[in-house]
Design a protein that fits this description.
Elements lengths: L12 E7 L4 H4 L3 H11 L3 E18 L2 E17 L2 H10 L3 E3 L5 E3 L19 H13 L9 E5 L2 E5 L5 H7 L5 E4 L3 H12 L10 H8 L1 H16 L1 H12 L6 H33 L25 H7 L4 H47 L3 H30 L7 H31 L2 H45 L12 H7 L15 H17 L7 H23 L13 H6 L11 H20 L5 H27 L3 E3 L2 E5 L5 E5 L4
Antiparallel strand pairs: 1-3, 1-8, 2-3, 4-5, 6-7, 9-10, 10-11
Helix pairs in contact: 6-18, 7-8, 8-10, 8-18, 9-10, 9-18, 12-13, 12-14, 13-14, 14-15, 14-17, 15-18
Length: 674
């Protein structure tokens, strides 16, 4: 497994709790001690690490008065590791499905471990699967007694209710401050050398190692970015030739040929990307068995979607009529809620953002001074950031009331809603100059500012902010320690790795941490860039060259950010780029002024078609739920028999099983006769 034995203890999860000195008589009742003991009882390896002090607010209830006091505690970190057997047994308990050597996805069984295919790096479980096992282990520790258990913390009694999760209870009380994944130092340093700091191989990336370390979603993003950048070499070269060579009267032929070639380039690129995506899914043995409906935030306090149709089937009893009616209500109310939310977002864009964008575009056109235009653009970019953040928060609140099936559907819904805000922000001013004024000199200036100024500022901000946040947290922790220990002299060092991880910021999106992680900003940047260069390629052929150089730098800076500046991200199980693929494929628009009416009519019709296809599904929810239920039952019936067959090295072909006789010859027996 890349030189790392699978039985080597690697701490992958950390919990942050306050450190206190306990008396022996109170030790057994302390909630943190109980949590540690419960972790060990389920098979986890726990290591306690003392860190620098931190401050938090302590609430003291005295009658009707509530007093706030700031209490300083030394932080204690609980590092968790799980042996392979612990992970295997909890995976079987979770009914996780994995690919077997005969290519069928079956429910995992620890006793039949030899029947299952291992990961490309040699490990039995991927990082996404291990993370789900950890999450199940730590959050499924519940009070199995028939009565409440009284725990103590700092003189306060805490009731652990029967049947409730202990970790969630301690999170609500503020005792467990954070839960987060840890970097694996051996693998992290290897990726730094072979990926983040390897500038000589411009677009080469160790995708399998990225998948093994960060999970599916991040690996798919970097695979897409690498392929997109490699394919951009052709239009970048073509555009550079058009910019440097004066074709004279041949421009009437060369520029249409350039535009047609980049449209064909885009079509071929996305077709080949789908092929590559399928190949990656097959190589990584992705079977979507890791459920995304539980969310991808490690904390137990994340919000989940409303009850899915399959759960309605299970809970509705044997009355088929009521079952069908409940599913139909669930289905149509869900579609109506999504339609209502989409209308709210569209009207907000048209009534609020569109006038603001047109006012900026008009001011940019009438101003004469380039310096004033530059200053106006900077102010505009700063103001629009706050506007989009507000729009993102509103979208989050709307999505919480939608009946999305799982977290990835919620994330896709958020992408569609928020991208409308960014689309208006990025393109309305450019369309204003291209279609209304037809001033191509001003259009080129706007494109240069958007492609160079915006992307440079974006890269500078997204890579400098994590370092500044880490430096500030580190400075505050050291300052607090020096205040309490006034005689302390010399430099304070962070002795442990987990302490450094705690101070690092998370890989979060600019709009919200609830649904999307930092991949939202990275995909958004690529989508806006792609739309800009595709729609306005003839006005500024050098756009492809600038974008290619930016993407080469983006691959390495994003890698460095993930490996050195941020905490290890929580893995996501999505095997595709999701809603972003649909957004990318809408980027092949034409901007000739004479075809503006056709452009508008085409997209209105496409919007109507897309809206009706989403609003009226091809398959009713109750039919889909019944089919899923039948398939699940059929798979469970034969999975154990197949596992015994595979692990016993018996081979089944065409309804027959081949067994080895004692004399070494094969004996073929029909499966129907068994």
């Amino acid at each position: 497994m890349n030189g790392v034995p699978e039985d080597l203890i690697v701490y992958e999860i950390a919990l942050v709790v306050p450190k206190r000195n306990l008396n022996e008589e109170n030790k057994g009742y302390d909630c943190v001690e109980v949590l540690v003991n419960e972790f060990r009882n389920v098979g986890l390896i726990v290591e306690r690490v003392l860190g620098l002090s931190d401050e938090f607010i302590k609430w003291l209830g005295m009658g009707y008065k509530v007093i706030l006091s700031r209490v300083a505690y030394y932080l204690s970190f609980l590092q968790l590791a799980a042996p392979l057997e612990t992970l295997g047994r909890v995976a079987a308990k979770m009914q996780m499905k994995k690919t077997t050597h005969i290519g069928i996805d079956l429910q995992f069984e620890w006793e039949e471990i030899k029947a299952f295919v291992r990961q490309p790096d040699g490990s039995l479980f991927s990082w996404c699967e291990r993370f789900q096992c950890y999450r199940h282990l730590i959050y499924k520790i519940v009070n199995k007694k028939n009565s409440d258990v009284t725990l103590k913390f700092d003189g306060k009694e805490i009731q652990w209710e029967a049947g409730k999760s202990l970790l969630q209870r301690l999170e609500l009380e503020g005792i467990v401050k954070q839960v987060f994944p840890l970097h694996d130092e051996i693998k992290r340093k290897k990726l730094l050398r072979s990926w983040a700091l390897n500038w000589w191989d411009f677009t080469a990336q160790p995708i399998d190692e990225i998948y093994a370390y960060f999970g599916t979603k991040i690996a798919v993003y970097f695979a897409f970015l690498g392929m997109y950048t490699r394919w951009m070499i052709f239009p970048a070269t073509f555009g550079l030739i058009l910019q440097l060579i004066d074709f004279g009267s041949l421009k009437l032929l060369v520029f249409p040929a350039f535009f047609i070639s980049i449209v064909l380039w885009a079509v071929l690129f996305f077709q080949f990307w789908k092929r590559k995506n399928s190949a990656l899914s097959a190589r990584w043995h992705l079977n979507f068995s890791v459920s995304t409906s539980e969310g991808y935030k490690l904390s137990g306090r994340e919000w989940n979607s409303l009850q899915p149709p399959l759960e309605l089937v299970k809970n509705s009893g044997i009355d088929k009529t009521k079952e069908k009616e409940a599913l139909q209500r669930y289905e149509w109310f869900g579609y109506l809620k999504r339609f209502r939310n989409d209308v709210i977002i569209i009207l907000s864009i048209i009534c609020l953002q569109l006038p603001f964008e047109l006012a900026y575009a008009h001011l940019y056109e009438v101003l004469k001074s380039d310096m004033v235009k530059f200053g106006l653009t900077v102010v505009y970019l700063l103001v629009i950031q706050y506007f989009t953040k507000i729009g993102g928060k509103i979208s989050i609140r709307l999505i919480k009331h939608e009946n999305n099936e799982n977290t990835e559907y919620q994330a896709d819904s958020l992408v569609y809603k928020v991208f409308g805000l960014y689309f208006m922000q990025s393109y309305i001013g450019v369309f204003y100059h291209a279609l209304l004024h037809r001033n191509f000199m001003t259009l080129r200036q706007v494109l240069i500012q958007r492609l160079i100024l915006y992307e440079v500022l974006e890269n500078l901000v997204e890579n400098s902010l994590p370092y500044l946040k880490y430096s500030y947290k580190k400075y505050r922790a050291v300052r607090n320690k020096k205040k309490r220990e006034k005689g302390l002299i010399g430099k304070i060092q962070f002795a442990t790795r987990v302490e450094k991880e705690y101070l690092k910021p998370t890989y979060s999106a600019s709009i919200s941490e609830e649904l999307e992680d930092g991949l939202f900003d990275d995909f958004l940047e690529l989508a806006l860039q792609f739309g800009m260069i595709m729609m306005f390629a003839c006005a500024f052929p050098l756009a492809f060259a600038f974008s290619a150089l930016n993407n080469i730098a983006e691959m390495r800076t994003d890698a460095l950010k993930l490996l050195a500046m941020l905490r290890r991200p929580v893995p996501r199980a999505a095997a595709t780029i999701g809603a972003w693929l649909n957004i990318f494929q809408e980027g092949k628009w034409k901007i000739e002024p004479g075809l503006a009416a056709i452009l508008v009519m085409e997209h209105v019709l496409l919007l109507i078609k897309f809206g009706f296809s989403r609003f009226v599904p091809e398959e009713p929810a109750w039919v889909r739920a019944k089919r899923m239920k039948n398939v699940t039952q059929a798979q469970d019936m034969c999975s154990k028999q197949l596992l015994r067959t595979i692990s016993g090295r018996e081979k089944a072909f065409g309804g027959y099983i081949r067994r080895k006789k004692p004399d070494g010859t094969n004996k073929t027996q029909s499966c129907r006769n068994q």
